[in-house]
Design a protein that fits this description.
Length: 109
């Protein structure tokens, strides 16, 4: 099991530091949260059209850049950091503790 991106020091928790995630990224995060914090990518891809896949890639990139989620790669995926991976190489998405705190801060829950 490979975790990408490698855990780094997350940015500060100041509420005015950024404008917040996009609506698509928040929708993906809510679906992850409803399923208990972890979700296999295959279940998302079964329901997705080509336009949805592009939006899904953008939401995954945004949430992983914000350290709200970690992307778990399949065992056969190459271990080169900094490389973008196709959706077929992703095994599951998982919520981070930092993401739970920031989501609670944004939504008041």
């Amino acid at each position: 099991m490979t975790v990408y991106p490698p855990p780094l020091h997350p940015p500060p928790l100041h509420p005015m530091a950024d404008p917040g995630p996009s609506p698509g990224a928040l929708a993906l995060y809510r679906s992850l949260r409803r399923t208990g914090g972890s979700l296999r990518i295959g279940t998302l891809l079964k329901r997705a059209t080509d336009a949805d896949r592009v939006a899904l890639c953008a939401a995954i990139d945004e949430l992983s850049e914000r350290y709200w989620i970690t992307v778990i790669l399949c065992k056969h995926a190459a271990d080169t950091p900094g490389q973008s991976y196709p959706l077929d190489d992703i095994d599951r998405l998982r919520i981070t503790r930092y993401g739970r705190r920031k989501y609670a801060q944004w939504t008041g829950r």
